[in-house]
Structures are given as C-alpha cells and as structure tokens.
Design brief:
Strand content: 25-35%
Number of strands: 4
Largest sheet: 4 strands, mixed
Radius of gyration: 12 Å
Helix content: 40-55%
Distance between the termini: 22 Å
Shape: globular
Mean pLDDT: 84
Strand order of the largest sheet: 1-2-3-4
Structural class: alpha+beta
C-alpha cells in the first residue's frame, strides 16, 4: 500500500485522495510509500517516506506543501 494513515484521525476525502494519488506516484517512481503520523507532543502531523522494507527514512515533514516540493523531482517521471 502506498499510503498509510497512522494517526487515528479521519482525513477529509479530498485530502486523503490527494495523499493516496501522490503516494501512488512516489511508489511507482521510487518504490517508497508515505506514512502519516500525528505527534501529540508537538500537536502536528508528520509525513514519512517508507522504504520498500518498511523502514522510515530520514526526518519527517510537518507540512504537506514542503513535502511535495522536496519530493516532486523524484516523481516527475511518473507524471508523464
């Protein structure tokens, strides 16, 4: 699965659909998936890249727009 919502929060259909579509493109291009967590201590969402073995990669993003900006060059081949 390319997207995992690990927050126990209900996302709007639009946001979840956007994340799933983007996650599908990331998985198609890189083999990585997206995991969404919620950090209760900081009261913020965290977006992780997950490698094909299921390991979280690097530090999480806390902003969707920054995540997309940082990863869009990786998925551009899948958008064509």
């Amino acid at each position: 699965m390319s997207f995992k919502n690990n927050t126990n929060h209900q996302l709007t259909n639009t946001m979840e659909q956007t994340m799933v579509r983007y996650a599908n493109k990331i998985e198609e291009s890189t083999g990585f998936s997206i995991q969404l967590d919620f950090n209760a201590d900081d009261d913020e969402y965290e977006i992780y890249l997950v490698d094909p073995c299921g390991d979280l990669e690097g530090e999480p993003w806390t902003d969707w727009e920054t995540f997309v900006h940082d990863t869009e060059s990786q998925i551009s081949p899948a958008l064509v």
